[in-house]
Specification:
The chain has 151 residues and is mainly α. The chain has a domain of 98 residues.
Length: 151
């Protein structure tokens, strides 16, 4: 039998199984965002490598444009996308592994990739706009996660 004086409403102990605080939802979003940013960087890097190979291999894959201020030949753009894609993919892998260098490098590479996609806009407008949005998300996710080195 239970005694009426016994307290049946005990607070859960603090810790992983305890109740979540008001800031826990935000940190969960940031951690999940960082994980997603790492995966996006891997995919974005792989697609950048493929874009670079297409630009280098065949100049007729992308439409020719008229006069454009930031116009390079497609082989140069292919090399830019190939190298940038490799760097982004390696950094995405580092983010997923929790490497300390990967967060700051990821922010910097996402910014550089956004600039490259802006300059690439006339060649592939829809993909460039999607890539700009992906880059903005990656920068946000890597800047908002307070737990350095952990995903």
């Amino acid at each position: 039998m239970t005694s009426p004086e016994r307290d049946t409403h005990r607070a859960a102990p603090p810790g992983p199984a305890g109740p979540s605080g008001p800031g826990d939802d935000e940190s969960a979003w940031a951690s999940g965002g960082t994980l997603f940013a790492g995966v996006l960087m891997l995919v974005y890097g792989a697609l950048g490598v493929l874009t670079g190979i297409a630009g280098i291999g065949k100049d007729d894959v992308y439409a020719r444009i008229g006069d454009y201020v930031y116009k390079f030949n497609l082989t140069a753009w292919g090399c830019i996308h190939l190298v940038l894609g490799l760097l982004v993919a390696v950094t995405g892998w580092g983010i997923l592994k929790g490497a300390e260098w990967a967060r700051a490098t990821g922010i910097a590479l996402a910014a550089v990739a956004m600039v490259a996609q802006f300059l690439w806009l006339p060649y592939s407008p829809l993909w460039a706009l999607i890539s700009l949005a992906i880059g903005a998300f990656i920068i946000w996710a890597l800047c908002t996660n307070d737990s350095a080195g952990t995903v």
